[in-house]
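[agent] plan:
  1. take the single chain provided in the ticket
  2. run structure prediction with default settings
  3. attach C-alpha cells to the ticket
  4. add a short note for the reviewer (M.T.)
[agent] executing step 1
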Amino acid sequence: MAVKAGVLGATGYAGNEVVRLLSGHPDIELTYLSSETYKGKSVASVYPSLSGIFDMHYQPLDIPAIAEACDLVFIAMPNGEAMKMVPHFLSAGIKVVDLGADFRFKDHALYEEWYGIKHLSPALCKQAVYGLTEINRGQLVGTSLTANPGCYPTSVLLPVIALVRLGLIDPAGLVIDAKSGVSGGGRTLNLARHYCEANDSISAYKVGAHRHTPEIEANILEAAGCECTITFTPHLAPMTRGILSTIYAETEAKSEDEVLSALANFYKESRFIRLRSAGDYPSTGSVCGSNYCDIGVKVDRRTGRMIILSVIDNLVKGAAGQAVQNMNLMLGLPENTGLAIAPLYP
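[agent] step 2 finished; step 3 output follows
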C-alpha cells in the first residue's frame, strides 16, 4: 500500500521539486499540497510543467486535515513555521521531513542566535536526525523527524566530513568559497535576484555572516569530533541551478590518487557520490536536475593544502532530492527509490 504524503509549502521551488520527484516515486501517493498564496488553484495553473501529471489543487494549511490525509509530510516553508506544526504531527504518528532550519541544530540557542527566532519546540531539536544521508544513514532508518540540511552545508560537509574522518585534512581554518544559482534564494521576488541585477554578474553576499556557517561548523564537530572555525563566503552566480563549493584545507596527503582511493572506500556504499579522477574537476552542469554530488580534489604540495571541489544541484541534492532520499530511509525503502534520474545535459 502506498504511503500517503503531503508537501506543505508546495509552490516554492524546493516544495515543487519535492512534488516533481514524488511524481515518479512508486511507493508514494501525494494526498495534500498546501499553499497559502495559491490555495484553490490547480497545480498545472501554477506549474505548467506538471500539467497532466497531477490533477490536484493546492489547499490551505489545515493541520487537522493534513493529519487525516497523510502518513508523512515534507515541510518546505519559511524558518519558524515547522516548529509550530511538528509537535502536532508527531503526536498523531505522522513522520516529518523539514526542509527548513528549525531542527538542524541540537543546541536551539545556536538557532536562536543566528536566525533571530525564539524556538518553540526546543526539546525536539535533540530528537531530530540531521539528514545528511550518506553520513547519518544509520540514524535515519525508522526515525520520525528529519532535519534536511541546507544546500551549501550539503555541498561542503559531504567531502569535508569524510576527509576529516580519514585524517586527510585539518579541519582548523577551513576556507570555503561557494557559488550558487539564483534559485537558491527561493521564488519570492527580490531585487538582487531580478534578471537585470543577476545576469552577467557574480556577487558575494552575507560575507562572514551567512546562517549556514554555524550549521557547517556544528556538523563537523558532531560527525568528526573536531572543533573548527571556518571562513565561508557565498556568491550569487548568474545561473538557475547549482552549487560549486571550493574548499581549502591544510593536508599532509601526497597525491590525489591517495585521497581519491580513500574517499572511494569511504563512500563505496553511496551511489549518489561520484568522484572525479585526478586532474579532472566537476562542474555544476554535470549534476543538474539530479541527486548526485560530484567531488574532485587537488593536492597542492607547494602550499601544503588540499583544494576540494564539490558540486550539487541546490534544489535536488541540496534540498528536495536529499529530502526524498531521507524519506526512503525513514520508511525502510531503498534510499535511491524514485531518485535514479540521470542529470540533464546540456
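[agent] step 4 note for reviewer: The chain is about 30% helix and 20% strand.
[agent] ticket updated
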